[in-house]
Structures are given as C-alpha cells and as structure tokens.
From TrEMBL:
It comes from the Eukaryota. It comes from Lupinus luteus. Belongs to the peptidase A1 family. One of its GO terms (cellular component) is extracellular region. This is Peptidase A1 domain-containing protein. The keyword Transmembrane helix does not apply.
C-alpha cells in the first residue's frame, strides 16, 4: 500500500475517444458512424460482462490475489473507440525523470499494468506500441516481489497480459502540495512480459496498458484509499464540439460537490459498481417495469452497471436499452462521485466544462 501524507488531492485529464488528444481519435467521423460504433460497443460489452460474472476467483498465492481467467473490460477490445485514456508517469530515472504511458481508465477491472522491457526476452511477447516498453531494470524505484508474484489477465476481445507484480513510484501533477509533482511510492502494478492485443497492428498503436479502477484490492483507488478517502469523480464534457474543454478524473480533496446532488448505495458484484434499478422512464414518463423482469433469477446480476464508458441496462432474456445519440456518453454534464469506503455514489448536474 501507499505511504504518503493524508488528504491528497489528485487530478488527471480524462481523454475521451473523440478528442484529438486521444490515440483512438477517428478523423472526420460522422455522427451516424459514431452512433453505430457506440451501439456495437454496447452489445459487445454485454457479452463481456456476462463472461466476467460467470467466473470464480482463484488466488495466485501472492500477497495480492488477482482474478484469473477471462476478465472482460471496456478497454482493449475489438471496438476500442469508446475508451477513456489517462496519462500515467511511472518509475524513477536519472534526474528524477519518469516514463509516461497512455493507459485506459477502466472501472470494471482492478489491475494497473503496462508492457515491460522483459517482453522482448526469449519466452516473452510484446504487442507493438508507439512508445518504449517500460525499462524496469533502469528504474531506481522498481521493487519486484520476493518471491516473485506472477499474474495473468485476459480481457474480452482477446487482449491478454501476464508477468510479475512489482511496486513502483507513480508521479502525477500536484494540486494540493508545494511541489509541482505528487509522488506516490509503492504502487502495486503488473509488469507485463507476455502480452497480446489484436488491436495492436503496428508501432503506431498508443494504448500501453490499463489503469484499473474497480473495487479490486489492486486497483488504483483501493491502493490510495487511505490518502484519498476512497473517493474519485469524473464529469464528462459535451463531445464533438470544436476546442472542447477537457474532462477530469479527480481524487480526494480535489473533488468538489455539484450544486445539488443525490446519494445512493452501491452494490458491489465481482468488484464492479452496480446500483439497484427500480424503473425506467421515457420523456419523463415512468414505464413501471415489472420488478420480476428487472430482478429475474435468469440473469447473473441485477440493476444498473456503472462503467467509465457508460451505463448499461440489463433485462430478462438479454434485452438492453441503448441510449442515443450520446450512447455511452449519456453521463455528459453530470458529476459522479464514487466512495468505495462508504460504498455510495453521489451524482448531480454540473457544468463539466467549468467545474468538472
């Protein structure tokens, strides 16, 4: 776990797929193409989540047990254009320098990982990426577990990673200290030595790993919960507008409440975030859906899954509701505040461009 002062504030730019800053940006994509992509993404995500919640947890014998087998995520898959990306700075090199990597922020999985240099050694495997593989042997703060603690993760769409858990220093822009940077030592992450991603065709590919934010004990929010109060928030700005302001992922003291908000309890299922679904409405009119449909024993989980890429509604027989045209960005101009200590979700309308 992390050892640092209490009451930290931390803010990361959350790069949406339709931003020119995103490695997944598609130039000149039409609204119709975007809607079709989001709908396809929703259907793929349902299957992946069904796979995840049919799994059992198997400890790997280390101090930090991980889920084994097929663990889905809305990140590196056949339809990656719906993902949110953050820049993460890892390691300690000469002159206190670090290496920066673009990782997909994923609230449905827990492990933080990136490809490490050892993937190039005999017996290892790397997928092509634009940046350098993390040179763990050169980092002054890289600390492997002793004895070695292996991990294996496989995601929907065929992406997989295996390697060894280690502790490292992660460096972020500081908003609440006298230093321009906030260093968080002893963050547990996966140093990937055998990795594959069907989406990585050549060295232009810029997705370099995953920034896990689920309730799993290895997730970033769980590792810094003592310092951040177990709170993180995001607030999506309107997409597709020219020169749109950035969205932010905030932690701890950097989180400001919206003018008005509601608080509901979170249901944790396999480390994912759920809320109980009571009903749906169209144009302000409730549909009065039979509760036996919403809470049918035929499905493996109930209610509403909250995901960094969107909200998915589950019904008996596999039916689902796709909200368009915003699709997975139906959370635009709402601030969502997760509290993993209290297991609550607070949300309210917000001008995310000004107060996100």
């Amino acid at each position: 776990m992390v050892a640092c002062n209490m009451g930290i504030g931390l803010t990361l730019e959350l790069i949406p797929p339709h931003s020119p800053k995103s490695p997944l940006f598609i130039l000149n994509q039409t609204l119709e193409e975007r809607i079709q992509m989001l709908m396809q993404q929703s259907h793929a995500h349902v299957q992946q989540l069904s796979d995840k919640h049919s799994l059992t947890r198997h400890p790997n014998g280390s101090e930090y047990p991980l889920q084994q087998g097929t663990i889905p995520t809305p990140v590196i898959q056949r339809l990656p254009q719906s993902t949110m990306v953050v820049k993460v700075n890892i390691g300690t090199f000469n002159n206190e320098a670090y290496k920066s990597y673009l990782l997909v922020m994923d609230t449905s999985s827990g492990l933080i990982w990136t490809q490490c240099e050892d993937c190039r050694k005999p017996g290892g495997r790397c997928y092509p990426q634009k940046g350098d593989y993390f040179p763990n042997s050169e980092s002054k703060s890289y600390t492997p577990f002793n004895p070695p603690s292996p991990y294996t993760m496989q995601y929907g769409g065929g992406t997989k990673t295996s390697g060894f858990l280690a502790k490292e220093t992660f460096t972020f822009p500081s908003t609440s200290s006298s230093s321009p940077h906030l260093k968080l030592p002893n963050i547990v992450f996966g140093c990937g030595t055998n990795n594959d991603s069907p989406n990585a065709k050549d060295r232009r590919y810029q997705i370099e790993g995953v920034f896990g934010m689920s309730m799993d004990r290895n997730s970033f929010i769980n590792q810094i919960k003592t310092q951040s109060g177990g709170k993180f928030s995001y607030c999506h700005v309107q997409n597709g507008e020219k020169n749109s302001p950035p969205s932010y992922l905030r932690f701890g003291t950097d989180i400001k409440l919206p003018p008005t908000s509601k608080t509901i309890k979170l249901s944790i299922n396999r480390d994912s975030y759920f809320v109980d679904l009571l009903d749906l409405g169209v144009n302000g009119e409730r549909l009065h859906i039979d509760q036996r449909i919403i809470y049918s024993p035929d499905i493996k989980y109930k209610g509403l899954l909250l995901d960094s890429g969107g909200v998915t509604y589950y019904f008996e027989g596999g039916a689902q509701l796709d909200v368009i045209p915003e699709g997975s960005f139906q959370q635009v101009n709402y601030k969502f505040i997760y509290n993993i200590e209290d297991k609550t979700l607070q949300f309210g309308k917000e001008n995310c461009a000004k107060n996100g």
